[in-house]
Amino acid sequence: MAGLDETALKRIGNARAKVRAHVWALLARRPQGFPWLTVAGKLLTGWVVIDLDATLITAHSDKQGAAATFKKGYGFHPLGAWCANTAECLAMLLRPGNAGSNTVADHIRVLGDAITQLPVAYRRKLLIRVDGAGATHELLEHLQQMNRAWRSVKFTVGWTITTADETAINQIPADAWSDSLHQDGTATSDAHVAELTGLNPRLHAWTGTLRLLVRRVKPSARHAKNLTDLEKRTGWRYQIVATNITRIAGVPGSHQPQWLDALHRSHAGVEDHVRGAKAMGLRNLPSKTWTVNRGWVLTANLAADLASWTRLLGLHDQPDLADAEPDTLRYRLLHLPGKIAVHARRRVLSIPETWPWADAFTLCWQRLTQLPLTT
């Protein structure tokens, strides 16, 4: 790992991008095409969705770069970028445990590395989603400035509620609240959404195209002790999302607050990707040395990509395996109760007929071995 410097990381990144471009070309050739994201029943054709999120890795011994975390643990606080379309980990930055959640430079670096991983043809329509850590002037201005004549960049970010925000929420007319949407596009009366843009004076200090959308839900027991005076009085818990989306061409209803709320809430799927990456080795960093652990993080990201490509190219039509997490893949496919025999200079894999996923394994194996090689 002594040679894992910025030059080596750039070379590895270039190799990853080359393979990824080949894989995405194969995905586009599938009968169902490239996996464009569907949100609340609306298909976002042409849009690549990147989710930024940080996670905590506990260190059980003293390691270089380990530090106390904001949750009073000890370890590391890496920041990653995942492609929501494919569940790939595009980029990850290993950081000390005391790294800030809203460090602008880290977000800009990871986002830049993630976009570099995308095939050039897929960089024209980008949707960036971040939780509350992304609500900083510098990051939102950077995202807005990324727009070009040939590239459209949209974003949704969480928004920390202040007294000024609560004052604006209190001014929303009762008939301005609309039912929230499930991810299948159906409405629910358990939560409501409203536009907050014209009522909030805080927006004067932010980028001019910013919109604020507020969501209200009945508080759960675990939130009861942290409610504000307004939330206690009204009986609702409030959350705000900031976005620069006024309308997405070709997506009817994409300007509506309830659809934009559903778009941002689907960002929660990144937690599944983080959990998957941890199952591929990110859960524990093995070395006392920062450079070795940096290499380990990169290896875990590569493993997560391989698992994603296996599902997308070999298991995409298998109901129980198309979205399987690593532990499920290990149990059903990778830890195969098979036996290899050699006969007439040929290797034969024998799989028990009683194994429930024998057909799925055979189909996946045939599909992957028949894929054209990258050149």
Verbal overview:
The protein has 375 residues and is of the alpha+beta class. It has 10 helices and 16 strands. Strand 15 (339-343) and strand 16 (346-350) form a beta hairpin. Helix 1 packs parallel to helix 8 (290-314).
For the largest beta sheet, what order do the strands appear in spatially?
8-7-3-9-10-14-13-12-11
Q: Which percent range describes the beta-strand content?
A: 15-25%
Shape: globular
Structural class: alpha+beta
DSSP E strands, number: 16
Contiguous uncertain segments of 5+ residues: none
Order of helices and strands: HEEEEEEEEHEHEHEEEHEHHHHEEH
Cα(first) to Cα(last) distance is 28 Å
Helix percentage: 25-40%
| Overall pLDDT level | 91
Main sheet: strands, sense, barrel: 9 strands, mixed
Task: Give the count of helical stretches.
Answer: 10
The value of Rg in angstroms is 23 Å
Keywords:
16 strands; 375 residues; alpha+beta; 9-stranded mixed beta sheet; 3-stranded antiparallel beta sheet
